[in-house]
């Protein structure tokens, strides 16, 4: 697949275009907002120039990457593409409308795919005339740097297509994993408690955001705490993914969104991109220093890590992916310091089970129910 179309010229879309172009593909980028494509390509040129300055790539390679990328002015320009990856707004109706129009222009053999992080691949593909050529290809932000790609076949996807895309992603230098088409796939399903439980701890005045972040970094060796990470991702984006996963799991209490996060989204306190989120990013603002408390930190860490490990064990039980891919996905997709299944073994599954049982007895909430497999491990 050497002729690739990218729909959406936001950070993710242009990042995927860079990955494909770097690997010798001819890439066409389209965005309904024509100005956005121009802005994105100018931004890409700046980023590549920085890579040249740092001697990460040669000037010749930069020229080659830019030469491989063309601007598409309408969807008809994708008529020769062998693979199209959509990376637009997380809205099922808008995505479906784009794909149904695309089918009028592309060849019978062209593979259509979505970079959605949480919308059902089966539901997106079901509206197409040829749903068997549709698949999920979920990159992580920033696409040129993050190695993980989740490949998600739908119930209607042709049986050999997942393997073809898996191999293509390897050719592109990525670390692909194959996931079942369930809400959140592997990473966004398993990672929900990292944010959700951190938010609960703060909402209950057990600890401050900086204490939760410090606990997870010092005791868990995570590169970023949940609140720093939400500010980086975008508080609104993180809230939207949580809400989608919650709805798609028929309002399972395990994935219940946070009222605090909703209020932050409403106030447009979205994190780094708006200058203020859980932390203040305005010029001269000082980051609050966490008041260290060893007993509290242990409580925070054990509570959050137990929830994460329980989700990984449940994903294993349901066959969301194989053990190796579950471990790989969390390390390569969200930079976890260890695979959660091996982490559970290290801490002791009995300890994880006991922690969750204590939380369940304290709160009397289904949120803390254990995977049936956890008790047997």
Write up this protein:
The protein has 377 residues and is of the alpha/beta class. The chain has 16 helices and eight strands. The chain has an eight-stranded mixed β-sheet.
Concise overview:
With 377 residues, the protein is an alpha/beta fold.
Topology:
Blueprint: E1 3-7, H1 11-22, E2 26-30, H2 34-53, H3 59-67, E3 69-71, E4 83-86, H4 92-102, E5 111-114, H5 121-125, E6 134-139, E7 148-153, H6 161-171, E8 175-178, H7 187-190, H8 192-203, H9 209-220, H10 226-233, H11 235-248, H12 259-266, H13 294-317, H14 323-333, H15 340-347, H16 349-363
Parallel strand pairs: 1-2, 1-4, 2-3, 4-5, 5-6, 7-8
Antiparallel strand pairs: 6-7
Helix pairs in contact: 1-2, 8-13, 9-13, 10-11, 13-15, 13-16
**What general outline do the C-alpha atoms trace?**
globular
Question: Which structural category fits the helices and strands?
Answer: alpha/beta
Number of helix segments?
Answer: 16
> Can you give the helix content as a percent range?
40-55%
* Strand line-up in the sheet with most strands: 3-2-1-4-5-6-7-8
Question: What is the radius of gyration?
Answer: 21 Å
Q: Which strand-content bin applies to the residues?
A: 5-15%
Largest sheet, described in full?
8 strands, mixed
Number of strands: 8
Please report the distance between the alpha carbons of the first and last residues: 43 Å
Average pLDDT, rounded to a whole number, is 96
